[in-house]
Amino acid sequence: MTEQKSIPLEFSFDYENDKGTAYTSTEIIYVSVLQSVQVIFGGINLPEKVYSLETVSAGVQIQNVGKAPVYNVRVELAVPGLFPTTGVFAGNMEPGDSSEGSMKIYVGNKKMKSAGEEAEGEEKEKYGSVTGIIRLTYEDAFGKTYTQEQEITTVIQKPKITELKVEEEKKETNQWWVASLVILFLLFISSMAVMGRKLKKQREMLTDLQIKEIQREE
What is the DSSP string of 168-214? Predict the structure, then answer.
């Protein structure tokens, strides 16, 4: 298959004027050889379930399998409740080139029109299955735009609750400190009791010595 490019064609002309004089002329004409563009789009690797208020990553794969280059290759996502924060722009791709990209997507809910917007409604209206499209767009050398679209479905679930776990961990940590303080307090009391007994015994021994000393002097 011929590569897409301009090929020069040379034409020679032989002619005579009205007096019979012979002339020769040569002209070169450039003919453009065109090839149809062909890009394979691997779709998007989006999880089957996503959680509201989180940001997820989804990978895409693109390959130019045609004989002609393509330009301004980009991927766009249009799914209710999903809001890309970074897109995928592969730019220009020569024949045989492939590109892998990652799209960051903020997960809202089905009632949201823009990321972070407050959306009223019941839970069954906000969460559940959503369906939209992933769109690949590119251009050929003459600026003609081509589009490929694939349907995509996922399930938006309620936000994950992590506060309870943190509170439980704090509670367990507090209990550990309380237990440690109780043990230290008991050890302190025991030490004080032992020292008290020793002091009492020493006072008794001192008193006995004093009594014996007085008896000797008498």
Answer: HHHHHHHHHHHHHHHHHHHHHHHHHHHHHHHHHHHHHHHHHHHHHHH
In a domain, 18, yes or no: no
Q: Which two tokens stand for residue 127?
A: 């969460």
Residues 183 and 109 in one domain: no
Domain that holds residue 131: 39-157
pTM, entire model: 0.59
- Note the pLDDT tens digit of each residue in 42-81: 878 889 999 999 999 999 999 999 888 999 999 999 999 9
Q: What residues have CB less than 8 Å from 157, skipping those under 6 apart?
A: 49, 50, 51, 52, 127
Q: What is the pLDDT of residues 10-50, one digit of tens each?
A: 667 676 777 778 777 777 766 555 567 889 988 788 899 99
H or E segment and range at residue 63 = strand 55-64
- Residue 75 near residue 92, CB atoms below 8 Å: no
